[in-house]
């Protein structure tokens, strides 16, 4: 009993001494500690180091339920943008090979795809990026710790290695950029045991085979898209709408194209359970939301793409009173990426209301570093961010959806110019271009400022990036009319668009 | 007992042979321009070799360090040589961890902290 009292007093004395030292000298181990080594965390830490700040970044990948883990670089590099775009490219090449015959290429027999070859090449590229980031951090004098970071108090971070060894770091400012991880459904037996997520799909050594993708997000559609493209039997199960938050007319064109190109869609259904059969295959039982009737089918793989969530519990945020959004679990942020705790900041996918995109995380991270180093007061501008969904028919957009424009300006306050066009490259191989479409949503009066621009077609990302500059500069419909197109391209159709939705006229582009 | 094995080879064929004879082991390879009779290399950057040698005490237990002289300057400058074509080397000196994308090229080899990082981190 007496021993206990003595130990407790000693601990109190030590803690007091520690705090006293800190406030006397104001000395911290680091000026900035960043938790999270993804797109945002790396950009922020490197930028801060450029200004002579003492910076440390902690990156740690908690293995997925299936045991998948990866190196430095975060979601984008390892289980997102990069492997996604490469596999999307693999799928597009499959279509190109089919078209090639019509262009005169002598290809004997059917061309099939080998998953292992693609996966190895993609995984090797990702590993070279992991290494590249590692060398960059070292070069820019950022201390890198492969440890799981959590908050002890507003100036102290605890790092835990895989082996369980602890390290304590003190910092003047702490930045949280830990992003999100795919969610598993909580009420479906067999979901976690037998299912995969986007954390796993890019690291599979063997083909996923006949796959059921559950979800209708861009993650679900992009994955289902490339799986179909490389020749796998793929089904997408959607509960309500596809690409929530995006322009719904465009979302329809994207899914229509996928359906025409072989992806199966099961709509208005929810999975009930996943069971493993003696053959090793997975049997999924689902029910129709409207009729309640149950259906079954067997698959080799089930991919859950039902949303992503931040790992805030392990960070110890509740202990420090960092305010979170109750619904999403994301951190509530000010315009300057500040949290409810004075010297703790957060940005990227973990921020409430922030776009879940790499370029915005990078830019926000750099600006935050500049502000923390006292070199700038500039805030991140989250408006007018262009984005592209890399489904088999790509969809690029910048600005407002038609629905949002209508909400803000009223149906009578907007004018929508639109056109169905046919890429020249589709003509020779006689490819169906019914879903190749574009629309420019403008203010109805005055110069007709462009409120939103939407494009489905090949290379939509490349097309949209160029137009997003004009958008950023406040382009109007008259600017568009004054812009001469480059011929022959798909992008030029945006400069020629002249049929309004209001007119009800046929919007199909005819000839040159 | 030696911490690591050092092997010296000349040219691409000898390099491949040395690698195939040590399958399953962790192999680090350092590529340098040939040294003349006085021990001086035609490659001006390769004189910083002592920096790499200085970190070799950090090599993992049981690993292999292959010191490979690629050839004369004319051979190296020809873009069709096997080191450039097959091994995808872009410059000398190059220090790499065989079978992984981890490599340090030219000036990167002069930074002892980067060399140490390659030898000690996963």
From TrEMBL, chain A:
Disulfide bonds: 76-81
Protein EC: 1.8.1.9
Binding-site residues for FAD, renumbered to this chain: 85, 149, 349
Record-listed NAD(+) binding positions: 215-222, 307
Active site (catalytic residues): 487 (proton acceptor)
GO biological-process terms attached to the record: cell redox homeostasis; cellular response to oxidative stress; glutathione metabolic process
Cofactor(s) the record lists: FAD
Manner of cofactor binding, per the entry note: Binds 1 FAD per subunit.
Family: Belongs to the class-I pyridine nucleotide-disulfide oxidoreductase family.
Name of the protein: thioredoxin-disulfide reductase (NADPH)
Organism encoding this protein: Xyrichtys novacula
Automatic annotation (TrEMBL), chain B:
GO molecular function terms noted in the UniProt entry: protein-disulfide reductase [NAD(P)H] activity
Subcellular location, record wording: Cytoplasm
Pfam families: TXD17-like_Trx
Keywords: Cytoplasm, Disulfide bond, Redox-active center
Main localisation: cytoplasm
Domain Thioredoxin intervals: 9-121
Keyword Disulfide bond attached: yes
InterPro entries: Thioredoxin-like_sf (IPR036249), TXNDC17-like (IPR045108), TXNDC17_dom (IPR010357)
GO CC terms of this entry: cytosol
Keyword presence, Cytoplasm: yes
Similarity comment text for this entry: Belongs to the thioredoxin family.
Protein name: Thioredoxin domain-containing protein 17
């Amino acid at each position: 009993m007496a021993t206990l009292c003595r130990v407790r007093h000693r601990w109190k004395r030590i803690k007091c001494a520690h705090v006293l030292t800190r406030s006397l000298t104001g000395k911290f181990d680091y000026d900035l500690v960043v938790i999270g080594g993804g797109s945002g965390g790396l950009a922020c830490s490197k930028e801060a180091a450029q200004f002579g700040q003492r910076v440390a970044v902690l990156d740690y990948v908690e293995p997925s339920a299936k045991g998948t883990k990866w190196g430095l670089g975060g979601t984008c590099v390892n289980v997102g943008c990069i492997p996604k775009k490469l596999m999307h490219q693999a799928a597009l090449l499959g279509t190109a090979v089919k078209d090639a015959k019509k262009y005169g290429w002598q290809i004997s027999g059917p061309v099939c795809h080998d998953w292992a070859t693609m996966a190895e090449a993609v995984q090797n590229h990702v590993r070279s990026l992991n290494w590249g980031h590692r060398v960059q951090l070292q070069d820019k004098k950022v201390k890198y710790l492969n440890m799981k970071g959590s908050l002890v108090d507003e100036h102290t971070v605890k790092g835990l290695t895989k082996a369980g060894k602890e390290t304590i770091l003190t910092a003047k400012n702490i930045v949280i950029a830990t992003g999100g991880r795919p969610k598993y459904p909580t009420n479906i037996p067999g979901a976690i045991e037998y299912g995969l997520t986007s954390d796993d799909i890019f690291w599979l050594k063997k083909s996923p085979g006949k796959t059921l993708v559950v979800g209708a997000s861009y993650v679900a559609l992009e994955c289902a898209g490339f799986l179909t493209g490389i020749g796998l039997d793929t089904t997408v199960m959607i509960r309500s709408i596809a690409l929530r938050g995006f322009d719904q007319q465009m979302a329809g064109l994207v899914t229509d194209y996928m359906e025409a190109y072989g992806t199966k869609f099961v709509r208005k259904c929810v999975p009930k359970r996943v069971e493993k059969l003696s053959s090793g295959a997975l049997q999924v039982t689902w029910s129709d939301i409207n009729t309640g009737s149950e259906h079954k089918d067997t698959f080799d793989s089930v991919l859950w793409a039902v949303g992503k969530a931040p790992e805030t519990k392990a960070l110890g945020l509740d202990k420090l009173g960092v305010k979170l959004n109750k619904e999403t679990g994301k951190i509530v942020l000010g315009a300057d990426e500040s949290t409810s705790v004075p010297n703790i900041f957060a940005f990227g996918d973990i921020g409430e209301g922030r776009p879940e995109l790499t370029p915005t995380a990078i830019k926000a991270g750099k600006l935050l570093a500049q502000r923390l180093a006292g070199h700038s007061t500039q805030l991140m501008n989250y408006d007018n961010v262009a984005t592209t969904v890399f489904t088999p028919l790509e969809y690029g957009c910048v600005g407002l959806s038609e629905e949002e424009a209508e909400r803000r300006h009223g149906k009578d306050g907007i004018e929508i110019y639109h056109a169905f066009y046919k890429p020249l490259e589709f003509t020779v191989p006689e490819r169906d271009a019914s879903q190749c479409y574009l629309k420019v949503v403008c203010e109805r009066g005055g110069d007709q400022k462009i409120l939103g621009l939407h494009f489905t077609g090949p290379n939509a990302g490349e097309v949209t990036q160029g137009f997003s500059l004009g958008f950023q500069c406040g382009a109007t419909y008259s600017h568009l009319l004054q812009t001469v197109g480059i011929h022959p391209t798909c992008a030029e159709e945006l400069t020629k668009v002249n049929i309004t939705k209001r007119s009800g006229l046929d919007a199909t582009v005819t000839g040159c | 007992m030696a911490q690591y094995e050092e092997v010296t080879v000349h040219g691409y064929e000898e390099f491949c042979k040395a690698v195939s004879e040590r399958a399953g082991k962790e192999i680090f390879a350092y590529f340098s321009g040939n040294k003349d009779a006085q021990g001086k290399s035609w490659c001006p950057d390769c004189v910083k070799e002592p920096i790499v040698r200085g970190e070799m005490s950090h090599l993992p237990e049981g690993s292999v360090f292959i010191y490979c002289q690629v050839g004369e300057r004319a051979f190296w400058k020809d873009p069709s040589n096997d080191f450039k074509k097959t091994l995808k080397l872009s410059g000398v000196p190059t220090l790499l961890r065989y079978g992984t994308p981890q490599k340090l090229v030219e000036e990167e080899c002069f930074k002892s902290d980067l060399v140490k990082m390659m030898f000690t981190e996963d």
